[in-house]
Structure formats: C-alpha cells, structure tokens
Amino acid sequence: MNGAPLRKRIRVRPLLLSLLCGWLFALQAAILLGQGRDDLSGTVGDALLAQAPEMASANAVTTVVVSYRGFDTLGEVTVLFLAATGIALFFGAHPGGRAAQPRARRRPPNEMMVTGIRLLFPVLVLFGVYIVVHGHLSPGGGFQGGVVIATAFFLRMLADPDFLLDHGWVRLLESLSGSGFVLFGLAGLTLVATGTFLGNFLPHPVAAMGQLLSAGVIPLIYILVGIKVGAEVGAIFQDMVEQAPEPDPKQET
Amino acid sequence: MLDLLDSPGMVHTIYVLGSMALFSIGLYGLLARRHLIKIFIAIAIMELSVYLLFIALATSPGETAPILADGLTRFAGMADPVPQALTLTAIVIGMAVLAFGVTLAIHYHRLTGIRDIDAMTELKD
Amino acid sequence: MALPLTPIWFIALPLLLAFLAPLWARLRLLLPLLFGAQVVLLALAAALVPAVRQAPLLETIVIAPPLGIHLHLDAVALLLVTLFHGAAALLALFVWLDEGVAHLRGPRPFVLLLLLVAGCDGMVLTGDLFNLYVFLEIAGVTAYALSALHRDRAGLEAGLKYVVIGSVAAVFFLFAVVLIYLQTGQLNIAAVAADFAAIPAPMQVLIGLSLLVGLGIKAELFPFNFWVPDIYQGSDPAVASLFSGVLVKAFLFVLFHLAFLLLADPRVAQVWLMGLGAATLLVAETVALRQPDLRRMLAYSSLGQIGLIALALGFTSEATTAGALFHMVNHTLAKLLLFLVAGLLIRRAASARLEALTGLGRQMPLAAGLFVLASLSVLGLPPLAGFASKLWILTGFAEAQVFWPIALILFGALLEAGYYFRWVKALYATGDAPVARGPAPAPARSAYLPLLLIAALLLLLGAAPFLLEADLVGAAQALLDRAATIEGVLGAQP
What is the pTM of this model? Predict the structure, then answer.
C-alpha cells in the first residue's frame, strides 16, 4: 500500500517475540490441560473448611484470612505499609510534618459535583464501615471495606480542592492499627496457656455464629485491618493527588 | 448440549486457555513494550492471569461460596476457601507493588523527562 | 504473663517497632532503636542456640502444620538469622555513628532497614510456601525503596529497574506456588515435599523452571543477573552492603532449601545449580576485571562469590555445604566492610571512578587499610576468614574426587587477585593524577568502630575457624537431611 518493501513493513522483533510467547502459551496450556487435576480433593482448604466452625465465623474465607493464615495477612498489611512509606518518600509531605498546601487548580470545581460528592460521602463511608464490621458474616472484610472508605475520601479530594487529610492523623491511624494487629497476635501468644501467635484468645462460642458479636478476635482484627488499609490507601491517594513540589535531586531527608 | 459446558473438565479447560493467554499477552507486553507504564501494565496482566488460574481451577461448578448464609448451615459442598484467601492477599500485595512502581516511574519522568526503559542509561558498563 | 522466647519475635519485634516509627521519630530514638533491635534479636538468637542444638524449633501460628503456617528454626536457619542480625547490627551502628549518611537516618529509612532484615528472617524461617511469597515481597518492596533512597537520577533508575525485574520474579514464583497448590493441595513446604514426587513429570518441570526463574532472578544467578550491577551502582553503598550481605544470602538459602526439600534425589538439580553457579562465578569475575567504577567492581565481585557459594551448595556433600555456609558468613562480613569503606572513600573523592580514587590511600590510611584487609579476605589469603572457608570447600571437592570446580575456584581467585590488586594499587599510587576533592570532610573517628569490629571478626574467624565448625556442620546436616525435616514437621511417615 505504501510502497515500502515487505521486509520493512513486518518488523522482525515483535514477530519473534510473539512466536516465543505463543510457544510458551502452547507449552503451558498443554502441560496444564494434560496434567492438571479437575478433582482436587483432600486439600488443606478442605481440611480447614471442616474445622472452620470452631472459630464461629460464618464466613470461612474470613476465618482463613484472619485466623488460620493471619500471619500472611499481617505480612500483606506490612507490604502495603511499606509501599505507602516508599510512595511518601517521593510524593508525600516532608517528614517534618509540614502542613500540605492547598493544591493549585486550573479551574474551580463544578458546584454540582462538589455538592453531589458531599452527599455521597457519608453514604460511602457508612457502606465501607458496614463491609468491614460484617467481614466475618458476609462477603467483604477489612480490605474491601478499607478500600471503599479510602475511595470515599479520594472522591472528596478530587472534587473539592479545599478538602485535605491531615497527614498527622493518617500516620497516627496507621501506627495504631498496625501495632494493634501485632499486639493482638502477641496477646494470643501470651494470654492463653496453650496460645499461639495470632491465636483466637477471646471466647468464641459456636452457638453465637452468625451474630455480629461472635468469632472472638476475628472481627476486631478485621476492623484494625480495615483502618490500616483505609489509612494506607488514603495516604497513597493523597500523596498522588497533591501537587508534589519540584523534586530536588540534592535534597536528602 | 450445553450441559457439556457445565462439566468441570470443560470449565477448567476454558479457564486454563484464558488465563494462559493472558499470561502470554502480559509476557509479550513485558518484552516488546518500552514505555515504563506499559511495562507495569504488562506485569499486572501476568499477575492477574495467575490469580484467575488459581481461583478458577480450585473451584468446581456447583460449589457455593464458603459462607454460611441464605439458609446454609454446614460447611459442605463449598468452594475451597484457601485459594480465595491467598488471592485476596496476593491482589493487595500486587496492587501495593504496582502503586510503588508507578510512583517511581512518574517521579523519574518528572526528573528526567524519560519514559522509555531503553533510554535509562545512567547506569551502564 | 511471661513472654516466651520463641522465633516469632524475629518477625513481631521489627514489625511492632516499624509501625510505631512516628513515635520513635518524635522521641528521637530512631537510631538507638535500630541498633538496639538488632542487638536484642542477636541476643535472642544466641539464647536459642542450646535449644536448637537439641532439636529444631517449630513455632505454630494458630493451627498446627501441615494445615497452618509455622516457623521452622533449625540449625541452618538459626545460623543465617544470627548472621543477618549481626550484619544489620554492625550496619545500624555505622549509620548511627557516621553523620555522613544523612538520608539513612530518617523515620522512613528506619522502617525500610528494619523490615528488610525482618523480611529476610521471615523467608529463612517460614515453613509455608505462600508465606514465603509474602516475605519475599516484604523484602522486595523494602529493597526497591532503599535502592531509590537518594532520589537522584541514578537512584531512581536503580529502583525502577529493580521494581520491574523483582515484580517479574515474584510473578513467576507465585505461578509456581499456585501450580503446586493445584497439584497437591498443600502449602506447607514439608507436606509439599512429601507429595512432590507424585506430581506428573512435565508439571514438575514447569514448576521447577518457574521456581528457578523466580528465585534465580532474586538470588542473582547467572543468566538472570544482568541487572544487579546497575542496582548496586545506583544505590547507596551502605544499602548495597545489605543487599550483598543479607538479601542475596536469604534468597540463595530459599532456592537451595526448596531444591533440596522438593526433590527426593538432589542430583536432578545438581547439574543445573552447579552449572549456574559455575557460570555466575566465571562471567562475573571476568567482567569485574575491567570495571572503572568501584561500586560496579564490588557488585561483580559479589556476584562471583555468590556463584562460588552456589557451586559449593549445589554439590550437596556435607563438607562443601558446610564450607559454603561458612563462606556465606565470611562473604557477608567482607562485603559489608568493603561497601562501607567504599562509601567513605567515594564520599571523600565525590566520585567512584578509578581515576578519582587514585592516591586516596595516603589521605585515609585507616580506610584504605581496611579495604586491603577485606580484599585479602575475599581472595582467601591465609590469616583471614576467606581462606578458611575456601579451603574447606576445596577440601570437600577434593575428598569427593571432583576436580573441575577446584580448578574453577582457583582460577576465580586469580582473577579476583587481578582486579583487587588494580584498585589497591590505585589507592596507594603517588598522586601524579590530579585528585578531585569533594566538599565532604573526613568521617568522624567513631564511624570506624563498626568497621574495625568487622575486621576483627574476619581475623578471628580466619585464625580460629574451629569456633564455628560444629555449628556449621550441624547447619549443613540440617540443610541436607530432607527426611528428618519432613518427619520433624509432619510426624513419622510410613
């Protein structure tokens, strides 16, 4: 069409790469289809599912996330914390706690949008809190609810230039909820004679399963996770929304 | 005739093909694209394909979510909760790393104006 | 309510301290706590030695293995954890005493340094595959952030390259974990090891290759380590010393631990791992010969030593394994010293190029002397620790009547002698080349204290390697004895 010779229109590198990826795809799919198991049984998950009633949480996924594999969750919250720390290193206010200045705007925000989001904001926060608090009863939990809450704040940050989170408060929440998680774990280790780290040391009668106050420490830990996730994600959003000062390569903190 | 689609073998085959196709697309993007943000998107696609494979193959058609609600009173005939819990963990970790990576890329672009991974030549032999 | 001495403190204490970092920043306790935490955990490791000599400690978390996560503290894990905290304590002391590394003294570096070591601890201690992935990411994210700490062009480039390559490695590792769960339904490493032989062979190969790509990238083995010198060059030398001394050691351990446990017959992996180790050694030492940048030279030297350790570990005989573990200890100490001294020299000369460092040995005699001492230890000269461990590895190969690794290791030492001598010669050259002087003043005298401590340790371990011999042999046995590990976790199997 454009008269260029064929070898110039077909570039060799993408062709080779797509051949390579296609070959890998065929190989992986062949192995997985040929050797994969459709009848996975006797797994750790099935054994945990059979044991799940002992924790008295109606949501078995929550039992696994917060209790049986709570150590993973602690690690995961830590990764989120580390990522927020790293992001704050580049975008955030400086560690001295200098108050963030209102962001420069090109245009004033639309009045409709600001009002609408102000109306939506409490509903979103309430919805997030509901998801967190009912994590051991219904689908949802600390992560999902925490992100919903952070999204509520993010919407307000986007719509309303005067709305800013106080970095000090966010950091305080981060610290308290994170260390609270570890302290709950240590309490499980020390308060009960046969306890383990992150053990469920509060009474959790099976009879109460399905009620809001049930499952011992699981809802409490999930609330802490919710606060932690909300604070971390909110801090990440805020760091990204705020106009970062022009980076100065020589500046070291 | 459509009952065939409900057999575990068929469902799992579809998911294997889909998730491995996503994995290959991600791998291709990783190797062929030079824009930093596109590379992070490619990595995210690879991660997602692994999550999809995990969730899909660990569950068989007919199993319900492992939650006692809507009249269920026993943990029986339910999906394996462990893959769901692990995927939840992995998604959050993946998101955190992605957010950090994108932050680095944005900051690097602001500092140098470079958004192409081949142009990163400050550190070379 | 007593606080029991359990391995959980290796994870819980750094996490608690890191989450409360704003409080410590307000109380101006950051640097004492960074040092103090490492010393406390070092003391805890020492206190656990008698118990671990009796039997490995299993710390259950919520539910007993194979259902739940557990921490597995055996002789080799204890050795590595002790090494990590020892190295981190020395580094923390250096950061505390040396005013020059200002960007390492704030609350955010405090969190990152603390959790880097905690992540490495977790990788070594955990008995669960997915938990291993979580700790791998903790160590990974801290490492990405630390390498970009300078926030200048080189640091950001190092951080970006590290994030990309590290995320890819993590995806491959996660893929392998998912495949293992879909095949066996287990996540506990011992339970997976017991069932691994039942997986169909092609699937075993796919899992093995995914693990090798994921962990090979992280452990900096040959075809996957093209990015390493960039990271070491772009990061602060103090951070690079942690990467080379602690992070890589943890990943190497994980790679070999999984290979030894999963495969009933380690000879399958022997060819691969020894081949990768030999290639890493040869390529890195050759490329190091002509590096004009001190940090790049040290990075390639570090890669060469990693290759040597992988070569010796891959051979799976007790003597070479014990020697390799000893070499891990010595290499950590020597590279810590080399990178920290390099940091001092580079700051003084305001450059890391060979020309800029010419003649600097006359102005900083103590730093240059320590550099020479650490180089000699890396080479393996008699009164120093590097000699004892290299000799142990060579004896191990000689006993097994396998001679090509011996030739390779000696050839590597020859190359090392070549390039370290080049740098030492430059340091002591008479300053006919004009020396560029940075504005930085000479480091405080007290900053040399941790460096002298490391040098003393290198001399002590070289003069008296028998101090550690029993523990190293015990650690090697713990690493190699697959049946005992599986039985220890799952109970006696029929």
Answer: 0.92
